């Protein structure tokens, strides 16, 4: 849930840095730079031979904005709901309900506007912060079935639009914490959940989830007990009078060991509550921290996690988590992100919209999530306006409204504003729909998907430069391109929002359109279907060479025939020691599994006792002999072992001939990526 100044400024800085050169070109372009901008043209090749799992959709957490606006006058909250969930708005179909922790009754509210989400407990009269042992999950008197009316107004309003409900926690209730406050511990790096409250916390989450389901006639699919737990973000500070003055939102440090205990307790608690919800975890702040946590989980804990959730406030390590999810064979969500990507508050500046759009593209290409979820698209205008607390990072939220409106306000006195992030996000949410499958694309500024029915495609392209750009769609990877196939551009720029242009006829499987400067364009492709015969990376009867992306040297059978090394690629393409034949044995799309065999002795590649080995193929295939291949479309691939989740890599990032090849945990390193080249007799070329 992370509106942290540190993270926000980082994201904003990335956006500003990326566009600083462009801003200079507007004011005083040099002839060389101007020529470079004018020369920029791209060809984008969507490739349906590499398809992700069915996309579940786009979503939001409810939390603060719902806690505030659920009690607003009807015309205001209905307008907000339309902007978020109706087809002309963001068209979201996933919602994450926050199970509030809640401070003690005698603690004066010090959290940011909307941050004090009510808990589901009901404390006896006179309960204070010092009273921590009164609550029992089995006592109905200790529950408040009418809690959190404002957020729950939203549940009723949108439940017809939602395909997947998730409940999640930012903090346990105050009486389960070490500090006695829901804003974090006095030491931000120490566990905030009391060790003796693990079972109570699990029962609280399960009980609130079941009560939500029953009261609103919904089905909650997943429950995530954490929010960015293994961080130093969450701390409570006391003023001179002993009263809390910060932090300003619910949060709790819960380290990996304690996370495991919570998951082990939550599984039986959900069963006891008779909710069919599965556990999702662990909503970590970035992929690298997620992987660090996940790698500590024993298999018994991993087995209890039905869905892997990660945030992308840090962008490194996306492919690490992608490969961990494939090895675990679990759905993966990008379950929260937001940011500024601009220079303070503006509702016309395209930079926030471009920054968000590129972030979405990068998440879809590198992380391969089944769903993409906003933190909260609605933010507090009072907090964001120039001169406000967050003025320097004032574009958090695609929609802004004062969080101080009253029951007497109207849309005129409590206005709703949208910025360019709202506009560019709709280029994705309107045209990449639940049930579609994202596919490989070779351009880092584009994301592509084929429709649920397989008879159409969408490409979303981000042009962050200050010059227009010719974009050519190459549709040659599709099996069928109809005679009347067309491409319809839908453009968002400073000149208009979702402006639909006339369809362009496809000629020779290609169509070109010049997109405006600083724009996001959705290309709606009709009349295409299937996968061209020569599009897939792997084809029956073909032979391949694997070359290390870092070393530039080929995967080779070591002397002795049981190990693997890298060596300079042989000039003889028929050198059998550097050849690999691959067979698909199971799975579909981006989770297909393959067996790698060297043609010399017919030995297959496997992982045994933590090492990569070549072994005789005895006909039986356990998971240790199966490999899943991943790519971002850059012509390099990772090879994920299905049994161990480890990746084939050049040990120690070595580059010399004879360097050992083995396996290691995914880390997004260049020594874990391989270029795959078709060396079948009479053929040549790389498989992208």
From TrEMBL:
<dbReference type="InterPro" id="IPR035992">
    <property type="entry name" value="Ricin_B-like_lectins"/>
</dbReference>
<dbReference type="InterPro" id="IPR039743">
    <property type="entry name" value="6GAL/EXGAL"/>
</dbReference>
<dbReference type="Pfam" id="PF14587">
    <property type="entry name" value="Glyco_hydr_30_2"/>
</dbReference>
<feature type="signal peptide">
    <location>
        <begin position="1"/>
        <end position="35"/>
    </location>
</feature>
<dbReference type="InterPro" id="IPR039514">
    <property type="entry name" value="6GAL-like"/>
</dbReference>
<dbReference type="Pfam" id="PF14200">
    <property type="entry name" value="RicinB_lectin_2"/>
</dbReference>
<feature type="domain" description="Ricin B lectin">
    <location>
        <begin position="541"/>
        <end position="677"/>
    </location>
</feature>
<dbReference type="GO" id="GO:0004553">
    <property type="term" value="F:hydrolase activity, hydrolyzing O-glycosyl compounds"/>
</dbReference>
<keyword id="KW-0732">Signal</keyword>
<dbReference type="InterPro" id="IPR017853">
    <property type="entry name" value="GH"/>
</dbReference>
<dbReference type="InterPro" id="IPR006311">
    <property type="entry name" value="TAT_signal"/>
</dbReference>
<protein>
    <submittedName>
        <fullName>Secreted protein</fullName>
    </submittedName>
</protein>
<dbReference type="InterPro" id="IPR013780">
    <property type="entry name" value="Glyco_hydro_b"/>
</dbReference>
<dbReference type="InterPro" id="IPR000772">
    <property type="entry name" value="Ricin_B_lectin"/>
</dbReference>
């Amino acid at each position: 849930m992370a509106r942290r100044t540190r993270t926000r400024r980082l994201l904003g800085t990335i956006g500003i840095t990326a566009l600083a050169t462009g801003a200079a070109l507007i004011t005083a372009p040099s002839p060389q730079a101007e020529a470079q901008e004018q020369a920029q043209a791209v060809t984008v090749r969507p490739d349906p031979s590499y398809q992700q799992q069915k996309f579940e959709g786009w979503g939001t957490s409810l939390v603060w904005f719902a806690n505030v606006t659920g009690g607003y006058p009807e015309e205001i909250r209905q307008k907000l709901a339309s902007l978020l969930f109706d087809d002309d708005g963001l068209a979201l179909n996933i919602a994450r309900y926050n199970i509030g922790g809640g401070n003690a009754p005698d603690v004066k509210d010090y959290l940011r506007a909307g941050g004090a989400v009510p808990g589901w407990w009901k404390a006896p009269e006179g309960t204070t912060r010092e009273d921590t042992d009164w609550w029992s999950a089995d006592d109905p008197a200790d529950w408040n079935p009418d809690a959190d009316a404002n957020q729950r107004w939203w549940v009723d309003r949108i439940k017809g639009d939602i395909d997947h409900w998730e409940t999640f926690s930012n903090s346990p209730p105050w009486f389960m914490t070490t500090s006695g406050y829901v804003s974090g511990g006095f030491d931000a790096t120490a566990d905030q959940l009391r060790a003796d409250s693990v079972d109570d916390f699990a029962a609280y989450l399960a009980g609130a989830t079941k009560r939500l389901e029953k009261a609103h006639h919904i089905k909650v699919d997943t429950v995530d007990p954490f929010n960015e737990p293994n961080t130093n973000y969450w701390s409570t500070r006391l003023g001179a009078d002993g009263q809390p003055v910060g932090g300003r939102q619910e949060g709790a440090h819960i380290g990996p060991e304690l996370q495991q205990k919570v998951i082990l307790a939550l599984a039986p608690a959900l069963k006891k509550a008779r909710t069919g919800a599965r556990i999702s975890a662990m909503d970590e702040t970035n992929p690298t921290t997620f992987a660090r946590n996940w790698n500590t989980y024993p298999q018994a804990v991993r087995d209890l996690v039905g869905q892997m959730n990660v945030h992308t406030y840090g962008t490194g390590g996306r492919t690490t988590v992608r490969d961990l999810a494939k090895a675990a064979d679990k759905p993966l969500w990008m379950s929260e992100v937001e940011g500024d990507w601009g220079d303070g508050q503006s509702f016309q500046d395209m930079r926030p919209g471009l920054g968000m759009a590129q972030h979405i593209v990068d998440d879809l290409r590198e992380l391969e999530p089944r769903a993409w979820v906003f933190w909260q698209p609605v933010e507090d205008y009072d907090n964001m306006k120039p001169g406000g607390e967050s003025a320097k990072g004032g574009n958090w939220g695609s929609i802004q409204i004062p969080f101080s409106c009253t029951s007497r306000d109207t849309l005129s006195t409590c206005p709703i504003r949208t910025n360019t992030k709202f506009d560019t996000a709709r280029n994705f949410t309107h045209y990449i729909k639940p049930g579609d499958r994202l596919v490989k694309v070779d351009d880092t500024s584009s994301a592509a998907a084929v429709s649920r029915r397989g008879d159409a495609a969408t490409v979303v392209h981000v042009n962050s430069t200050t010059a227009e750009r010719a974009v050519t769609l190459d549709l040659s990877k599709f099996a069928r391109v109809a005679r009347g196939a067309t491409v319809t551009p839908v453009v968002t720029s400073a000149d208009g929002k979702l402006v639909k242009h006339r369809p362009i006829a496809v000629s020779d499987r290609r169509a070109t359109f010049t997109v405006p400067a600083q724009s996001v364009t959705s290309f709606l492709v009709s009349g295409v279907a299937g996968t061209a015969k020569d599009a897939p990376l792997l084809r029956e009867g073909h032979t391949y060479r694997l070359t290390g992306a870092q070393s530039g040297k080929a995967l080779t059978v070591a002397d002795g025939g049981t190990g693997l090394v890298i060596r300079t690629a042989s000039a003889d393409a028929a050198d059998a020691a550097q050849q690999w034949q691959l067979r698909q044995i199971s799975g579909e799309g981006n989770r297909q599994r393959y067996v790698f065999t060297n043609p010399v002795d017919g030995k297959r590649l496997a992982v045994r006792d933590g090492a990569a080995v070549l072994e005789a193929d005895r006909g039986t295939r356990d998971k240790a002999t199966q490999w899943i291949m991943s790519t971002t479309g850059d012509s390099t691939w990772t090879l994920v072992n299905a049994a161990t989740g480890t990746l084939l890599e050049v040990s120690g990032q070595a580059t010399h001939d004879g360097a050992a090849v083995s396996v290691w945990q995914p880390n997004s390193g260049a020594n874990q990526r391989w270029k795959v080249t078709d060396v079948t007799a009479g053929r040549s070329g790389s498989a992208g």
